[in-house]
Design brief:
The chain is mainly alpha-helical and 408 residues long. The protein has a single domain, classed as Glycosyltransferase. It is 53% helix and 8% strand. It contains 12 helices and 14 strands. The strands form 6 sheets. Strands 2-3-4 form a 3-stranded antiparallel β-sheet. The longest helix is centred in the N-terminal third of the chain and has 23 residues. It starts with a helix and ends in a 14-residue tail after the last helix.
């Protein structure tokens, strides 16, 4: 498939399936904002708590869609998410945003999960990119300073997972029931990196530059396993690894987000070093994580693949991550992997009856037991972002193969 036809397919999926689902099915007219949970049969739980991650990711998605297409309905949805965040999630006493609120908007989990603060920065800065609204940029900068004041570890570098409402130490660190209760994690650092990259785009202050450089260094030296070229996932304060699992989705996502961060900084020496790491991560993911059908396995452990299901978000990240590796090297194997990941999504994950994508499929292609279509973690961010990234990337001329690419 040539780039033009591929881009048309992707844009049709984005504009005729993914975005319309959130515009038509997710809006909570009774309580404001968006429903906290919708199942795959389009039954909403009107009493479900509303998560910070879901609301910030909706805001990011529709801000980016408005920046790309200029349609008022996208801006209206971004505005709706922004109003709900400022009215119900923002902690006006202590700063930052709550982790979750009830269906009616009262605070449920008041802890300051750094992952959630990072996604708020990501959403606010994207809204600023789309609209030029100075208030959202100001709020993003305030959050940056809060994280640096309270969450940054001046001894070992990096950021702790969570703090109490008052920004004090807490033992409640986990992002979800699937995650370890560790003091530091790959996942949080990856998305602080992502948020600071977007912040630097719109506020190229030296403070952000230095912190983004630090985050790249921490990622390369502590989070990437320089023997296997996988991410390590959970850590104590001094970066001792607390897990031996591999998350293929995070590996391929991290490969392109790392490169993007270095690219935005514009330091050629740093970009060269990051390029080598990004390509090694993409190479090992291609070698180990891809099934015969083109889908990306969820996880592996010391004994090999331990979760053969294929969740929606690793497939979305595989499309972008492998295509990024192709752009850096000209190696057609990466383009083929990206295209195969797209074909897998189109064949197995797109829900042609009720819209959006299924949570996951089993190895045999049947839909998994997880019925969540919208919820704390099932959001429009991974798949919408993959579509928007690919539309922009496919419009560029193919790259020439670069020799001695070390890992492509």
């Amino acid at each position: 498939m040539d780039n033009a036809h591929w881009a048309i397919q992707i844009e049709e999926e984005l504009r005729n399936n993914i975005l319309p689902f959130w515009l038509e099915q997710a809006v909570d007219e009774e309580n404001g904002g968006f429903y906290g949970y919708i199942n795959r049969n389009l039954q909403e739980d009107r009493m479900a708590d509303k998560a910070l991650v879901l609301n910030t990711r909706i805001m990011w998605t529709f801000s980016a869609a408005y920046r790309m297409y200029g349609e008022q309905r996208y801006l209206q949805t971004a505005n709706r998410a922004y109003r709900y965040l400022t009215d119900y999630f923002e902690d006006t006493e202590h700063g930052g945003l709550y982790w979750s609120v009830s269906a009616k908007g009262t605070a449920v989990s008041t802890k300051k999960q750094v992952y959630g603060q990072a996604f708020t920065i990501y959403a606010y800065t994207e809204y600023y990119r789309a609209t030029g609204d100075e208030e959202t940029l100001k709020k993003a900068i305030e959050l940056f300073h809060l994280l640096e004041r309270h969450a940054f570890d001046p001894v070992h570098k990096g950021y702790i997972e969570a703090l109490s409402r008052e920004w004090q130490e807490t033992n409640d660190n986990s992002l979800s029931t699937k995650d370890l209760n560790s003091k530091k994690s790959m996942n949080t650092h990856l998305h602080v990196l992502e948020a600071y990259t977007n912040l630097y785009r719109v506020w190229p202050d030296n403070q952000v530059r230095l912190k983004l450089q630090d985050l790249i260094a921490v990622t390369i030296h502590h989070i990437v396993n320089e023997e296997s070229w996988h991410f390590k996932l959970f850590f104590d304060m001094a970066w001792t690894s607390e897990s031996d699992h591999i998350s293929y989705g995070h590996d391929i996502e991290g490969s392109w987000l790392l490169y993007e961060a270095a690219e935005v900084l514009g330091d050629s020496d740093l970009l060269g070093a990051v390029r080598l790491v990004a390509l090694r991560m993409a190479e090992v993911t291609l070698k180990e994580g891809i099934d015969e059908d083109g889908g990306l396995f969820n996880e592996a452990g010391p004994e090999g693949i331990c979760d053969t299901d294929k969740d929606w978000w690793p497939q979305a990240e595989a499309v972008v991550g492998f295509y990024n590796a192709f752009q850096l090297t000209g190696n057609e194997a990466y383009r083929e992997a990206a295209l195969n990941a797209w074909h897998f999504i189109d064949r197995y994950l797109v829900d042609r009856k009720n819209g959006e994508w299924h949570w996951s499929v089993r190895r045999d292609g049947t839909i998994s037991d997880n019925e969540e279509k919208a919820g704390p973690w099932k959001c429009p961010y991974h798949n919408s972002r993959a579509c928007m990234e690919m539309i922009e990337r496919l419009a560029k001329a193919p790259v020439a193969k670069i020799s001695n690419h070390n890992g492509g």
